[in-house]
Amino acid sequence: MSRTLPRYVTEFADRHGKARMRFRRKGQAQHYFQHPFGSDEFWQEYAACLSGELAPKVEPRLASSRVGSIDDLCERFYRSPGWQGMTKESSRKTYRSIIERFRKAHGSKRVAMVKVEHLDAILGRMRETPAAANNLRKVLKRLFAYAVKLGWRRDNPVELTDAFRIDGEGFHTWTEAEIAQFQQKHPIGSKARLAMELMLWTGQRRSDIIQLGRQHVEDGRIRIRQTKTGAVVLVPISPQLQRVLDSVPAGQLCFLETEFGRPFTSAGFGNWFRDRCNEAGLRQCSAHGLRKAMSRRLAESGATHMQGKAVTGHKTDREFSRYAAAADQVALADQAVANLAAKSVANPANHRKDR
After folding, report:
1. C-alpha–C-alpha distance, residues 65 and 74, integer Å
2. Residue 164: inside a domain
3. Along the 355 residues of the chain, how does pLDDT read in single tens digits?
4. C-alpha to C-alpha distance for 145 and 111, rounded to whole angstroms
5. Is residue 329 part of a domain?
6. What is the DSSP letter of 156?
7. Cα maximum dimension of the chain
8. Are residues 78 and 14 in the same domain?
9. 168, 189, 221 — which closes off a domain?
10. DSSP letter (8 states) at residue 190
11. Residue 212 region, left (φ>0) first, then alpha (ψ -120 to 50), else beta?
12. Where residue 194 sits, what CATH number does that domain have?
């Protein structure tokens, strides 16, 4: 059956005879679509390809590249099973972006001549952005491990470098006052209010929120397949969230759409929501901070770690605890002592007179 494909998209049969689709545009990397044509997820992928998020710009290969250079190592790494087997497209995009920046500055250097002091100097110059330095170190560790596998080196010099210690708490956790301030600026019926309440009441990442629509609602719950982990969570729709969802036009596939009626890309949504926070005078707040706010609220409400993880999709108690760390200490302490006191009164053994 013939069908009209969007620009730069072609259909082909792979070596197993399965119909596949790919995005091919001059100057960009190819992208093989993971979702069926016409689905919401397909259009999200397509929008991400056009923006360069999933099909990043390709740097022209240097004519002077030599065998054994960092340029050569990067090209071989991209063709390796370790790279090809990386299941998350978002992870490949992030890794590639970091590798290409390093390659642009050092691509002509020979892999065998790289020393620990060279890498220490490179990482040291990034002291103002320690998280970025640690990310570079993490990626280079894998890249040079592949050089060892190729027999180009006997050691991995990155292993002898030190990571920066980061004492910050990461993204700011929204307070109740900040939530109320945003709500006052963006009333029910606005796209900004819808986005905020979706993130707050589901506790999900922005990459998950942008794909949600009425087709994900099941028996009063929202079914979410997390982009980062692949886990499926079913989150009950609170009355507060339902009031906001009721304002979404009936024919709209995704709850959140761009001004052109298309799904957001993750990066595009982050930039758009950043502007909405600024409009409310909340420059310290971000989309991810709402995920932390939900974790805080769960902790303050007395939810167990198992209950909290069931909502946010965190895999370990440690991960959930880190997000819930901003829970109000006074409220938690009051709740803990009240629970203990109630149990003590209910225990007849505690009613004996002192002897």
Report:
1. 11
2. yes
3. 457 889 999 988 877 788 889 999 888 878 888 888 888 888 988 988 888 877 777 655 544 457 889 999 999 998 888 887 776 777 788 889 999 999 999 999 999 999 999 999 999 999 888 888 999 999 999 999 999 998 999 999 999 999 888 765 678 889 999 999 999 999 999 999 999 999 999 988 898 999 899 999 988 899 988 887 778 888 889 999 999 999 888 878 889 988 888 888 888 899 999 999 999 999 999 998 999 989 888 888 888 888 878 888 777 877 777 777 766 666 667 766 777 667 665 555 555 554 4
4. 11
5. yes
6. -
7. 92
8. no
9. 168
10. B
11. beta
12. 1.10.443.10
List, as one string, the DSSP characters of 232-291.
EEEEE--HHHHHHHTTS-TT-SBSSB-TTSSBPPHHHHHHHHHHHHHHTT-TT--HHHHH
Residues 121 and 48 in one domain: no
- Split into its structural domains, the chain has a count of 3
Domain identity same for 153 and 184 = no
- At 175, the amino acid letter reads T
Residue 208 belongs to domain spanning: 176-335
Same-domain check for residues 183 and 91: no
- How many CB atoms lie under 10 A from the CB of residue 284? 12
Q: Is 17 helix (H, G, I), strand (E, B) or coil?
A: coil
Q: How is residue 47 written in tokens?
A: 């929008």
Distance (Å, rounded) from C-alpha 240 to C-alpha 137? 43
| Amino acid residing at 283 | R
